[in-house]
Write a structure and sequence with these properties.
The structure holds two protein chains of two kinds. Chain A is mostly helical. Chain A is built from four helices and two strands; from the N terminus they run E-H-H-H-H-E. Classes of the chains: A mainly alpha, B mainly alpha.
Chain lengths: 66, 142
């Protein structure tokens, strides 16, 4: 799964630690999601969508772009 | 009331440290009661059955408390940490099973005089630590 987390975070001028604090996860988790090394659970994906106030499908995209 | 991100992050950290401390204490108690059970009958109470049974009960209780503390610690982790530990546990289970079968058959095929179950604990512990480190580094390397 691809995601736009890094871009969205930059738009809000947040560090990984800032976003991690808002999501109640560690900074390493945010880093792993941004790098595509870890796909978040559905509850965390919804939480991310809530933080950025965007629909989930505008943040997470399938790898093949379908 | 909405907490600021730094406070939330600190709370996660504090919770993790608190459950880790509790796990450390109960693991220590379990190790101490295991040592008491192993050496006590010979060194301190000359194989008195009642005392040995009481120490076995203490050991089982300490083991149960350690297990609960471990689950609490697991629950206090964030999802990446938890998944890392669960994957490491799966790997540890598999490797320990393979090792146990081979190690257990060594006395039968006369390559070893005795197989000690405690050696399996060492394999489990070392495998678990290495697996956690490897999986975590794989996922979080910058």
């Amino acid at each position: 799964m691809k995601n736009r987390l890094k871009v969205l975070r930059a738009e809000h001028d947040w560090t990984q630690a800032d976003l991690a604090g808002r999501l109640d996860v560690t900074r390493q988790t945010v880093n792993a999601i941004e790098k595509g090394k870890y796909d978040p659970s559905l509850p965390l994906a919804f939480k991310i969508a809530g933080v950025f106030q965007m629909p989930i499908e505008q943040i997470f995209l399938p790898k093949d772009g379908a | 009331m909405k907490m600021n991100p730094q406070t939330q992050s600190n709370q996660l950290d504090r919770e993790l440290k608190s459950t880790a401390r509790r796990l450390f204490v109960f693991t220590g108690t379990w190790v101490a009661s295991t040592a008491l059970l192993t050496f006590g009958p010979r060194m301190w109470w000359e194989y008195d059955v009642l005392t040995t049974v009481l120490v076995i009960a203490l050991n089982l209780l300490a083991g149960a408390m350690m297990l609960f503390a471990f689950f609490r610690h697991l629950k206090s982790m964030d999802e990446l940490q938890r998944q890392t530990h669960l994957e490491a546990m799966a790997l540890t289970l598999g490797i320990t099973m393979i090792f146990t079968v081979v190690y257990g058959s060594l006395p039968t095929v006369q390559l070893l005089e005795d197989a000690h179950p405690t050696n399996i604990l060492f394999v489990m512990g070392i495998t678990y630590i290495l697996a956690v480190a490897r999986i975590w580094m794989n996922r979080t390397s910058e």
